[in-house]
Amino acid sequence: MTVPEEWQRLHPLSPVVRGGRGTIAIGILLVPIALGGDKLSSAVPQMIVIAVLIGAGFVSWLVTRWRVEGDDLHIETGLLRRRSIRFPLSQVQAIDVIRPGLARMFRVAELRLRMAGSSGATARLAYLPEREVEPLRNRLLALARGARDDRPETEQPSEQQEERVLAQVDTWRLVVSILVSDVGVVAEAILVGFAIAAVLSPHAAAAIASGGAVWIISAVTVVWRRFNQLYRLRVAEGPEGLHLHGGLVALTTEVIRPGRVQAVRMVEPFLWRAVGWCRLEVDLAGRQRRKGEGEAARGQMRTLLPVGHRALALELVDLLVPDRPRDLSPPPRRAFWKSPLRYRNLAWARSDSAVATTSGRLRRISSWVPLEKVQSLRHVEGPLQRRLGLASIHVDTAGKAVHATLRDRDRAESTQALAELAELARAARRAQATA
């Protein structure tokens, strides 16, 4: 029986980094006191608040500990209500490295283990010394693969050195793509409207600024978050799958293993298609937003290529869905009367292991779904479809963001496709189970 390791604690500055905005607020409270602007007697309330926050952070750090026990990561935390959680490393989907702005300042980083299963549980070691993060991550990955590496951590190979860079987002292209995206256009409209009001009537502009401050701040915040998250995003091929590195203030390193991909989606907005740009996203297992994660982690979609040429996007699709269908068939002509705006974009095809669909009105959306990930198939006929002899087949996966649909097909074709896809999905699941 393997002897458990000694308990270890997080970095002493972990409460400071986890505090985030709270830490900044404490700094703001301390500035007047440090500069002598407030007398000590008048600063007592601020000092009490600061002392309580610092004490709570210290207690949180003191009662949290972790260790590796065999093939499990064991984390204990809590003062009045003690929690002891074991995360089986055999169920690890990926191990991400997160470095927010304060973490980079204090040279610490977070390890975030994303687990398999319907709950999408997440184990967080926030925060560890920066020099210890990569060796520990490599070790946990080795345990997750079922092969314990007994060499000293300093002799372990760095996965960073084994990566092959596939794509890196150009900063100016990212800026332009955000400005002409739906979010960017809304933000620009708000700011331009405010500027025009300021020129025509300063008093009206002041009223608009006070009444619409929430909308202005929200628009700017959304644009900033997208730029901050996708800045210099680099996609590389490594031992565990595709490695993603990016971020401006907060740096993130994430690994996308082939088994995590539920579906792949390529979006070609109307304004982007003139220059051949597109956005590539993947629907992943184990990306549900958990406690302690920011808005960037909400949902399961992960942007793999924020903006790039279609040929590059298809090369990445080939890595995620190797046997993707290539020759898609259009719908029957009478489908135009059902979907006049979608008609030119509707198509579908299948291979023995994947199904591909395209749809969209102003923007074209292409989806690829591995058949082993299919949870259900639905045959749907609406009132107008019945009159036109059409039907749609919905391909459902465990993810909720990608909706692959064989839309507005001939009724006989859809019936045959439903039977073929059901049989191929069963075969793909059996092949995956025996692999």
Structure, explained:
The protein is of the alpha+beta class and 435 residues long. The protein has three domains: 14-151, PH-domain like; 167-279, no CATH class; 321-434, PH-domain like (Roll), CATH 2.30.29. The protein is built from twelve helices and 19 strands. The chain has a seven-stranded antiparallel sheet with strand order 6-5-4-10-9-8-7. Strands 13-12-11-16-15-14 form a six-stranded antiparallel sheet. It has a three-stranded antiparallel sheet with strand order 1-2-3. The two termini are 29 Å apart.
Computed CA radius of gyration, to the nearest angstrom: 26 Å
Q: Could you tell me the mean pLDDT?
A: 82
Q: Helix fraction?
A: 25-40%
Largest sheet: 7 strands, antiparallel
* N- and C-termini, Cα separation: 29 Å
Q: Please, how many domains?
A: 3
Provide a count of the helices.
12
Shape: globular
Question: What is the CATH architecture descriptor of the largest domain?
Answer: Roll
Tell me the fraction of residues in β-strands, as a range.
Answer: 25-35%
CATH class of the largest domain: Mainly Beta
Q: How many E strands?
A: 19
Sequence stretches where pLDDT stays below 50 over 5 or more residues: 147-160, 288-299
* Spatial strand sequence of the major β-sheet: 6-5-4-10-9-8-7
Structural class based on helices, strands and sheet pairing: alpha+beta
The CATH topology of the largest domain? PH-domain like
